[in-house]
Amino acid sequence: MLEIQKLFPSVNGDSLKREEFLSYIRDLLTKIDELKDENKLSLGEMPNYNKDFYNQKVVTSTVPQQGIGIEEIITSLVNLAKGQRIVNSCYVANAAPLPNTASIIGNLLMTLLNGNNIWDIEGSAAASAEVEIVSSLSKIVGYDEMISSGYTTWGGQGAVFNSLRIAIAKKYPNANRDGVPNNLYAFCSELSHFSLYKSMEATGIGTSHLIRVKVNEDDSMNLEDLHNKMVEVIENGGVPIYVLATMGTTDSFGIDDIKEIKNILKQLEVNYHLEDIYLHADTAMGGMFTFFNDYNFHENPLGFEEEVLEVLMDYHTKFKYVSLSDSMVFDFHKLGQTPYTTSLFLIKDKLNLKYVDLDAEETPYIGDRGFGSYHTSYTLECSRMGSSIPIYASLLTFGVEGYQKILANYLRVNIAFRKALKESFPDVVITNEVSPVTTFRFYEKENNWPNELFGRISSKEIIATNEYNENISDNIGNNRNIVYFGSTKKQKLVFASDSNEAIPLFVHKFYCISPYTTVEKVPDYINFLKVFKNKTLQYS
Ligand SMILES: *Cc1c(COP(=O)(O)O)cnc(C)c1O
């Protein structure tokens, strides 16, 4: 067994073993650093990730008969890393994080301890961290920390699924045993994330019972349409079980007015004698902006510029009401800059968890014994990673002000990018409000934006502009090692003059989420677009 024991860290704190471990870490970091180039998206050369790239791997991969040494393993691992994009200033595609140092160290601790966060007897460090972050973030968003609860889970999507499951089980406690009734309906804006769509599938309610609400020009949910669609469902014998308020849509950062949504729900509950309708705030993208809930906008202690402050104040008018939700989420692996997967599902009233909890007799080997007092038998996961630890470390390293500064910078850079974009391209239109993301679209001939938006041109013309922009997206995408812009095929739905069918609009995305994406870099992004926008040939 000695030979096998060699494959593990020490169990006695042996200093030689520690030095050996540190030397591996140093070797790995050095080799990764050697591949870094701040003016390039990828670590080392980016291979051509075509079908053959993966086919080759399928053909040649086997488990080695004998194990190999760690030095050699590090070489293999670094080979895996080659070509991978990293989130430096070249990356402006999506809300992907560059994990901060403290969160990486937290992640390392998480793996070193390797606790199972299902039970404090198995994972005391993660349990403590989880209790702490649930409480401290509850205080930030305005939930009462004495009655709130929460746990880390599989993404913003996990939070949507878990909340829908609570909504069903709370209203129909027998549904867990007998299955879901067939007249339940859920509501979200047509720009909300597909998480709810998938959750409708997975809970068995069915996607045809997902009612999509129109959006306003600012990409927030149209409240009149919400009201009307809910009334229609109720009057036809349906039960509105769940409403999703998206606060920060994934592609364009539209923010639903949760205060007014809550008013509508209350009014319907009274008028139609309904029980509480569950309200989940999908704050996967926008949740970090609750860190401004206690910012003194009047004195502006961090000295934000007028333009930035204005946006923050506008956000504040919506995010200060997020505590009206029954649950929400912090996706730290988006704007919070931590490793995947670090999502915290927050629940306003922990009593709601009892509807999805397992009976003690169903969990024979954990929890509910004479020892241990933290047992998360209400999660859908059984074993659970301790991702509360990197979140905890990240909150400590940034503090409230650190997060305020990085979030404000996302806006500052976007404001500068928008100005420069408009100055440099007469044929561009910006299709969303100022936010961490700028969505934009080019026109081959004249600027047709108002006509597209208000249904004054034909579907053929809209689709032609979509195709024109998809081509541009291919051109700049082929050169993404210089700057990697994002895109989406459905930023908005519009109606053409000659068709009743909604047409999705293709737009490019500039997502500023890295601390290395600064105002000084904006001219580089603009130059890149100038050079490659219409250049079909691949850069070499
Ligand atoms: C990203 C996102 C999700 C999904 O979150 P994951 O962490 O990727 O699972 C859900 N809703 C919104 C609004 C999002 O932006």
Structure characterization notes:
The protein is of the alpha/beta class and 540 residues long. It has a domain at 2-86. It has 16 helices and 14 strands. The protein has helices at 2-5, 15-35, 51-60, 70-81, 101-113, 124-141, 155-171, 175-178, 195-203, 223-235, 258-271, 306-319, 388-424, 449-453, 459-478, 522-532, and strands at 91-92, 149-153, 184-189, 210-213, 239-246, 278-282, 327-331, 343-347, 428-430, 437-442, 484-488, 493-495, 502-504, 507-511. The strands form four sheets. It has a five-stranded mixed beta sheet with strand order 1-11-14-10-9. The chain has a four-stranded parallel beta sheet with strand order 4-3-5-6, with helices on both faces. Strands 2-8-7 form a three-stranded antiparallel beta sheet, with helices on both faces. Helix 2 (15-35) runs parallel beside helix 4, helix 10 (223-235) packs parallel to helix 11 and helix 13 crosses helix 16. The longest helix is centred in the C-terminal third of the chain and has 37 residues, at 388-424. The structure holds pyridoxal-5'-phosphate. Pyridoxal-5'-phosphate is lined by residues 155-157, 193, 195, 246, 250, 282, 284-285, 331, 343.
Low-confidence sequence ranges? none
Oligomer: single chain
Gross geometry: globular
Q: Sheet bearing the most strands, described? A: 5 strands, mixed
Q: Give the N-terminus to C-terminus distance in angstroms.
A: 52 Å
**Average pLDDT for all residues:** 95
Query: How many beta-strand runs?
Result: 14
Kindly state the percentage of residues in helix.
Answer: 40-55%
Q: How many helices?
A: 16
Radius of gyration: 25 Å
Approximately what portion of the residues adopt beta-strand conformation? Answer: 5-15%
Q: Which ligands, by name, code or SMILES, are bound? A: pyridoxal-5'-phosphate
Structural class: alpha/beta
SSE sequence, one letter per element: HHHHEHHEHHEHEHEHEHEEHEEHHEEEEH
Protein name: 2,4-diaminobutyrate decarboxylase
Cofactor: pyridoxal 5'-phosphate
Coiled coil: 18-45
Pfam families: Pyridoxal_deC
